[in-house]
Amino acid sequence: MKKTANKKNDLVKNNIPWIYSDIVKEHFFNPKNFLKSEEEKTFKFNAYGEAGSPACGDLMKFWIWIDPKTEKIKQCRWRTFGCGSAIASTSILSIMITEKGGMEINEAKKIKPQDIIQRLEGLPDIKIHCSVLGDQALRNAIDNYLKNK
Amino acid sequence: MKRIYLDYAAATPVRPEVHQFIKPFATDNFGNPSAIYLEGRIAKQALEQARESIAKNLNCRPHEIIFTNGGTESINLAIFGVARAYKKFFKKPRLITSRIEHPAVLEPMKQLAKEGFDIKYVSTNKFGEVNLLELKKCLNPQTILVSIMYANNEIGTIQPIEKISALIKDFRKNKYLPFFHTDACQAANYLDINVNHLGVDFMTLNGGKIYAPKASGILYKKNGLSIDPIIFGGGQEKNLRSGTENLTSWMGFSKALDLTQKEKNVEIKKIKQLRDYLQKNILKIPQTFINGHPAKRLPNNLNVIIADIEGESLILELDKAGIAASTGSACHSHSLEPSHVLESLGWSREKIHGSLRLTLGKYTTKKEIDYVIKILPKIVQKLRNLSAIKTTK
Question: How many CB atoms lie within 10 A of CB B29?
Answer without folding.
Answer: 17
